[in-house]
Design a protein that fits this description.
This protein is of the alpha/beta class. The protein has ten helices and seven strands. Bound molecules: S-adenosylmethionine (SAM). The site of S-adenosylmethionine (SAM) has 22 residues, from helix 3 and helix 5.
Length: 250
């Protein structure tokens, strides 16, 4: 059977045109953030596949770029995006004014009825959390310990529930967390990625599913090598390797 004849599998990347997605992406692009188009499409497709009244839990919202995509996807489903972010201080993420920008961006996109802000650390909320949700997006602190804790939110998901993780096979902490808690797990399956946005699903992994994680290791090593080059100010060498940006690959 040729690829064209093969029926779509759950992990296939849907590159078909979707005017609703293009509209949502157009709005999200007005919000400063790191999410790329293909990465937004993974979130969009997963959220659009949910039923009426669905809830998405997002860890790490920043100014709301990914929140806009999720909110637009759930708007006509009477759904809810629970946006978890303590708005940490610091050069990169920017403290209290970031919260104001987030709230302004939600209002500008008329998402006040869809998005509910939970301004706290995911790690503080998790031990006592009891609200169900249908899709989990992890894009908070990207160290091993936080990612390991954030993965435990997935115990709230139903069988088949999606887990989307940003900076996967790019950040050292996130990837070590995946190797420890997903590669060796019996309840999370790796499906696919768009750059560093990876899609996992609650389910029992086969050996082929585990091999797909290991197959990402060369890409991860390349990304770590590029990060070292950028720290050493060796951008011309990074460019030769196909990375023409002053920013880390993600
Ligand atoms: C990479 S940004 C998120 C980007 C956002 N998803 C977007 O599309 O623009 C990471 C965010 O995680 C937040 N953060 C850091 N630690 C966190 C934690 N433990 N729980 C939730 N959010 C956290 C930071 O305040 C920051 O806003």
């Amino acid at each position: 059977m040729s690829y064209a004849e093969r029926p779509p599998a759950p992990g296939d990347v849907d590159t078909s045109a979707d005017p609703d997605f293009e509209r949502a992406w157009g709005r999200a692009q007005d919000v400063p953030g790191w999410l790329k188009r293909g990465q937004a499409r993974i979130l969009w497709d997963e959220a659009r596949a949910l039923g009426p009244g669905a809830t998405v839990l997002e860890i790490g919202s920043h100014q709301g770029r990914s929140t806009v995509i999720l909110g637009e996807a759930l708007r006509d489903k009477d759904g809810t995006v629970l946006a978890v972010d303590p708005f940490v201080e610091g050069k990169l993420f920017g403290g209290l004014s970031t919260r104001e920008k987030f709230e302004r961006n939600m209002a500008a996109n008329d998402l006040g009825q869809v998005v509910e802000l939970v301004a706290d650390y995911s790690t503080s909320l998790r031990p006592t959390w009891d609200r169900p949700f249908d899709l989990l997006y992890i894009d908070g602190k990207h160290d091993y310990w936080t990612l390991s804790d954030d993965l435990r939110w997935s115990t709230h998901l139903p069988e088949g529930g999606g887990i989307v993780i940003h900076d996967c096979f790019s950040s050292i902490g996130v990837t070590l967390g995946i190797l420890r808690h997903v590669l060796l797990s019996d309840r999370i399956v790796y499906e696919r990625r768009s750059d560093s946005q990876a899609l996992f699903r609650v389910g029992r992994p086969t050996p082929a599913d585990r091999l797909r994680i290991l197959a990402e290791m060369p890409w991860w090593i390349r990304n770590v090598f590029l990060k070292v080059l950028l720290r050493l100010r060796l951008r011309p060498i990074a460019r030769v390797l196909g990375h023409d940006s002053p920013y880390d690959p993600y």
